[in-house]
Here is the input.
Amino acid sequence: MNRIVIAIVVITTAVFYLMAGRDQQAAPSQTAGPVLQAYPATARGEVVDNYFGNAVADPYRWLEDDRSEATGEWVTAQNEVTHSYIKAIPYRGHIEQLLTAKWDYEKPGRPIHVGDTTYWFHNSGLQNQAVMYQQRKGEEPRVFLDPNTLAADGTTSLASYEFSPNGKLMAYAVSEGGSDWRKIYVMDTDTLAVIDGPIVDAKFTSPQWRDNDSFYYSLYEKPDGSELSAKTDRHLVYLHRLQTPQTEDRLVFGDGDKYRYVWAEVSEDGRFLVIAAANSTSGNRVFVQDLQQGGDLVALDGDIASDSEFVTSRGDELYFLTNREAPNKRLVAVAIDQPEAWRDVIAESEHVLDVTAAGGYLFTRVMVDATYRLYQHDMDGQLVREVALPAIGTASVYEARADQPFSYYYFYNNTTPLSYYRYDNNSGESTLHSRHAVDFDSEQYVSKQVFYTSKDGTRVPMLISHKKGLQLDGTTPTILYGYGGFNISETPRFTLERATWMELGGIYAVANLRGGGEYGKAWHRAGTQQQKQNVFDDFIAAAEYLLAEGYTSSQRLAISGRSNGGLLVGATMAQRPDLFAVALPAVGVLDMLRYHQFTAGAGWAYDYGTADDSVEMFNYLRGYSPLHNLVEGVAYPATLVTTADHDDRVVPAHSFKFAAELQHRHTGKQPVLIRIETSVGHGAGKPTDKAIEELADIFAFTLWNMGVTSL
Here is the structure.
């Protein structure tokens, strides 16, 4: 089933001392530090929009044109100022060296069994993209697909793949420069020859085989204007027959009602085609076709207000995970000839439910205060056993064919690197298969969950991670991270960014804000549309908790977030510029009046609403939109905006306009800079070398503007 919906060597006492009041060792190099150059002049235009009789100026509208020469020159000029400043930080090069050494470890993937052949991904350490390997039974392993050979700079990545039912072919989609647009190819798994493709203009899709000669995929109608920023509104499902022109592909779904997001899946037994169709990132309809019996697509769920996700099929029934009449989700079974007769297989409980089918069983994971528990059930929903996890953290079972006697699941938390376990479906025994060999001593660190009270009295969890024995004297450099949207839950996870920051002596805190999915649909809705301020209040309260409990001070606190989290950082720094030393909004949604005018942004309206909906919605959005709430004469935190030129999900114009306005309004001495990466998108598939360079820049900027002058 295809579900569609973002380092250093071991540090000794000679390296980072970040706490105030402690001796500071000499850095590898000592210079006077960076000098901020004058910001590039950014012309202010005369564009004015009218919303319900309200005039709103948009002086940087010209920066929305990603194809214009003027925008290109502005990007170059901003990057020159930013890189000049950051590269002059005395220890920036040292941080990059440490990150490179930390990143250089083997990263094995879990086995993928296709018949008598096993596949897996592996990164030897600093490869820009992981390599896919193949091993036939009784044969030596060989390189199957190496994305590093697809582009000299490593910016072409493998986005998705699916094997044909007989395992003789693999259809795979690649992303160039990080774009969400995909090209699909088909390769022979014996000869490794590419026998078909490219299929172009695919987006938000993974190829799904109908049989051994054809597969389904989704694409958008070609947008008017820039492919990286123009609005995409109609998503379509096509059937491609091998070695025929794409122009002959058959339209399967989308010629009737218009949907912004549609994707196809084929049941493991090849009997059912399942299509989910949505106009927003929340809520979808489900259509099913019996490929054996023929006939038209049948609507199984006419309620587009709920989310229903295909899990598996069994005989004449299809299993769906749904929040229809179940805010915490339930697993239901439904037959195509009785589309409204839904019966519970696993009922809703007090905790949020997720389900995967593997080895002829149903594996559930339930979320308890933003951490997971795993359980095994039979196909009737009866509990077999709880899966014993190694610790509290994040875990999930991978899909596997019904005849496979074992399954695999992953596990990690903030102090435990990514680990893969083989699970015997019959005995319930778990065996460690592989673990990412990070140079990180988990025993020296601690992650503690706390609960704090938000502005309106809501109890909010937060995970705080750091070295053991840390003195809580209010001087520790701290990064507070948040997201708070789109029903996405922030559960414990291990990343090199977090591990590195902790090894440097810092605190990494993650707040489970409303708008996420940690406590089901009600928690999500409490952070949407005209309740979005709850998310910012939760984040501000998290920062105040860290200060009140002595973890850090405003002078040593940075806030960080990506995408919707970039909106979070932008809105929070505008509302409470006094509370933070550093703000790090990454690939953020920052213009809340026009976000829905770009790519598939209109689909985010469930969470945000749009300025065109009503005068009330317009006023609410304008009231917190980061771009529209920067005030003349305010000293804002040191800010490093990060974005990328190929981000066609949250277009870089958001960051361009916000940075220009911030430079225009800001009166403090702290730098407000923008870093624009090239040949990179929203984040997926980012090459290793670019990831290291960006993180080194972010850490150096953050520490320097917290007052850490030497390492």
